[in-house]
Amino acid sequence: MHKLVIFDIDGTLLDTEVAVLKGLQKCLAIHHNIEVDLKDLTFAVGMAGDEVFSHFGVDDSKGISYKKWIGYIDNFRNDIHIFDGIVPTLDKLQEENVKLAIATSKTRFEYDTTVESFGLNHYFDYVVTIDDVKKPKPNPEPLLKICSIANVDVSDALFLGDTEFDIKCAHDAHVDFGLAMWGAHEECAKLCDNHFYKPWDVIDF
C-alpha cells in the first residue's frame, strides 16, 4: 500500500459536475450573453477558471467571471453529493496510517465551502489548492509540493483523479495514478493503465 494517497475533489471525492456546469452555464448566459448547452460544457471539468473563459473569448485574468461562476454553483448545491464508498475508504486508509492529501484546482475559499461543508476535511493531512502553487494542474507542481511537505518519495504516492489534467499531472510528477471511473469520462480510460471502478479499489491496489 502507498504511504501517501492524494485525491482530487470534483469527480473523485464529490459528484459536483452537474452543479459546476450549471453554474458556468448561468454565468455565461447572464454576464456574457453566451448560451451553451450543458453537454457542451463538459470540457471545463477540472480546468482552471481563466482557461475555461478563454475558450469563449472572455479575458478573465482578474478572476471576476470566475468568482461569479463559483457563486452560482451554490444555487445548485442540491446536485452535489459524496460518491458512494468514499467515506469507508477514507476510514480504512486512516486506519492503515496512510497519509491523505488533496490536490485541487479549486481556490482555498472553494475548498472551505465544499469539502468542509461535507465533513470530509478532517481526513486530510495536507491540502494544496490553486492558491498554493504557481503552476496548477496539469503541471506536476501540486503533487510534488504535497510529496515534499509530507516527506514522502513520489514513488510511494498515489494520485486518484478523474480528468486528463489529473493524468498528465501524475505522469509528469512520476506519481502512480488511478482513474476514478465513477466520476471520469470514458475517453480518459485510454489515457492511463490503472482504472478504479469503486473507491475501495484504492485499498486493494
Automatic annotation (TrEMBL):
GO terms for cellular component: cytosol. Its EC number is 3.1.3.18. GO terms for biological process: DNA repair. Keywords: Hydrolase. One of its GO terms (molecular function) is phosphoglycolate phosphatase activity. InterPro entries: HAD-like_hydrolase_sf, HAD-like_sf, HAD-SF_hydro_IA, HAD_2, HAD_sf, PGP-like_dom2. This is Phosphoglycolate phosphatase. It comes from Intestinibacter bartlettii. The gene is gph_2.
